[in-house]
Write the structure tokens for this entry.
Amino acid sequence: MTFRPSPELSSSPSSTSSASSASSAVGYVEDVSPGSGSLPPRAWYASSDASSLSLNGSWRFRPAPTADAHDDSFAEPGYDAGDWAQLAVPGHWVLQGDGSFGSPIYTNHLYPFPVDPPRVPTENPTGDHLRLFDLPDDWPSDGGTVLRFDGVESCARVWLNGTDIGEFKGSRLPHEFAVGHLLRPRGNVLAVRVHQWSAGSYLEDQDQWWLPGIFRDVTLLHRPAGAVLDFFVHSSYDHLSGEGTLKVDSDVDGQVTVPALGIDVATGESVTVPVEPWSAENPRLYDGVLATEGEQVPLRIGFRTVALQDGLIKVNGRPVLFKGVNRHEWHPEKGRALDLETMREDVLLMKRHNINAVRTSHYPPHPAFLDLCDEFGLWVIDECDLETHGFTEQAWRDNPVDDDRWTPALLDRAARMVERDKNHPSVVIWSLGNEAGTGRGLTAMAEWIHDRDNSRLLHYEGDPTCRDTDMYSRMYAFHDEVERIGRRLDGGGLKRRELPFVLCEYGHAMGNGPGGIADYQRLFETYDRLQGGFIWEWIDHGIKDGRYGFAYGGDFGEELHDGNFVCDGLLFPDRRPSPGLIEFKKVIEPVRIEGEGRSGTVRIHNGHDVVDLSALAFEWSFQADGETVASGALSVPVLAPGQSADVKLPEPPDVRGAETHWTVRAVLASDTAWAPTGHEVAWGQFPVARRPSVRVAPDRAPVVADGRITLGPATFDARTGAPRTIGAVDLTGLRLDVWRAPTDNDDGASWQGDPRYGLLWRKLGLHRMRHRLDAVEPGDDALTVGTRVAPAAREIGLSTVYRWTSDGDRLRLTVSVAPEGDWTVPLPRLGIRFGLPDSADRVRWYGGGPGEAYPDTRSASRIGRWESTVDELGTPYVKPQENGARPDVRWAEIGGLRIEGDPEFWFSARRWTNEALDAAGHLTDLTPGDRVWVNLDHGQHGIGSQSCGPGPLPQYFLRVEPAEFSFVFSPAG
């Protein structure tokens, strides 16, 4: 390994000069080099016994429209910045100052400036930052000091006490400077000039907001004589012998102790002892200490071995299945300036929702996040801060990764990632970056990483031949292609076909969705070669905004933007789980519970990669018409990973005439670091006795009088046949409804080749259907209303007949629909809708719940009795769209009305029409009216993930074909 000189013994950086004599030139901004003056990268650690001083807090700040608007005099001690603004660091200046410091910009892949590498616009927002500080009274007078920046976007130049100490690029990477010779006990002046655009911006075209600023920690680190510099913890595990081998390479000689293992060895020496290995499922860490002459650094050591064996990614001898997410760093008010508690919240939410892996898209995260992954257990793909996606607009011409001038910057980024994060057992794969095309620079990065660390595998999705990588990776491959890959029928070279496959992005979680992830999971669990995937993405990047609730692209007046494509996460911006996360938790649960209710037997399968089932307790319950009538503990063998067992359920209670279900749950048997006792890990539900048919004997005749028709508990308009009241409940506008406010996935992405049905539905006019009245026919025992429902300017239509019957107390509506013409698209929905008075609020239902579900997003829906308010039924997607449907509803009660379905139906209710929902751009555009609008749907079209992936699979299409369905209405209670 490379041994580095101690910072306190290093000569001062060659760029050092007085601020008063420094040139005001800003050529470094467009220099393709990574910077100058900084120290070699090294391992990050959270603490040691050496002194440190956080420089986070309130800084003085001056914005400027260009890089050269001001000279360097602000860096001189004594400069009067009394009239400058105050700015929180860590932070982004465009998220502070109520817009007076500029605005955020969102693009998916387009560079928001002319593409002319490495040149950037003259209009280059620049922020001068000043921090005055004193050293603590007990700050050591000996040794040296390092100034560390953990993250600055996108280019920074730094002065301390008037001396220019260097400049750097690489926004999501650490940079350190030797500054001990410049410090004073009192009145230190740290000056940092940050530029939004630089040559480095061409390497940072990730799908996210462009947010300039010092957004990670700034820290002063004392370096005593003989302090720790760089060190590399090698801690492998032999799964055959059960032993771990530890060796700590250190630039400075020292001693390594691990008390729990009885280890006390010199650095550079190996020792092998029996250990418990580290894994994401059992993250066993051993506390140790690296002690040199001048410093003691705590170590958290996890023993594990990552290998490519038998064409599979194996950890500690066992294949792993990634059930992962892509995680951008995000906070709705602070952007990418995350505190430790927010990071901890992310990890705990992941663990509680069965997620076992994170891809740090598309840059190394704050290093404290990886500490949490080590502690709580998550497999990590650590991705380099590199993306040049915007060069697709010119067919990758002038792409920096294939230009030798940029290779030093690429290697610097790779080195800063690897050296910083190499001691984290959670990091099992390095990634070269994302969507940067191909080129010599990427190969150079791969060669350097493989040479520096052969204990991990290497990933890069943009390497179709797998020349530089250890796995075949794709994003958004359709289900049928993934199956071909699993069967090794995907073509490509022999090397690629022999490598494992990872779907590094799938299930685009934009708005309502993603749909179809259960179908992906079945493929992952069927074919060994498919080692899982990573949902795109973890959290919506909405910015808290008084105008809109949460803002997205275009809300700040950007001339180029990609709208709400930035809101595509499993969490809402405020970190509330979306229905997509609840669905994902169910789909990837590590225990499969399957059964056939009438047999009284349940099959339990341990889907963990590593651990047995000893940490779980199993419970059974028996439901009659959605209510639990019996429950108890279920004895399940302690199954090893991959094992299954058939378990006999107890005799069910004698509940005749009711629909019945078994439900079996796997819960934590005791508290863990990430969830309490009783936390639900997995569940299964199985029908026993079916629901009795809903019968209404038609023994009442409609009575026509005074412009009304009376039938049982209902009155109708005699001219239109439309119901006006059922019992004491007023009804408005009951009619067939086929329109839903298109979801992001309905509308799809502009680059999609498959039909984008949201656009086709609108083109066809399904959002403006006309309802022609053909007949109102009172009969001996029924009221029949004939209509034709069709869009203007089209010949297609739906012949629709409403047939009403009653037994005196209840009212049955049978809707018969017959298509006319050549329908070439599926329907968004098929059912009826009507309005109730706005006093309707409480909702009770028996059916699927508790949350929303659609044909391909219903894995997490379980049958039961549920309650809600109308407002709570809705899902607050940042950009409003179809939401809130509950599936498999047997009956629902709302506003004094009870509705039973034959067959089961989809239920939703909201305080605005589907048309108003469709027209809204933000939640604040939705205003409650004087009606609650109820949809009772016979069918819904699937959701898919076509906002950046496949649409719904064919089995989830709502095809246009003859249909008949019924609802029974009666007063509630």
Q: What stands out?
A: The first helix runs from residue 340 to 352. The two ends are 78 Å apart (CA to CA). The mean pLDDT is 96. DSSP finds twelve helices and 59 strands in the chain.
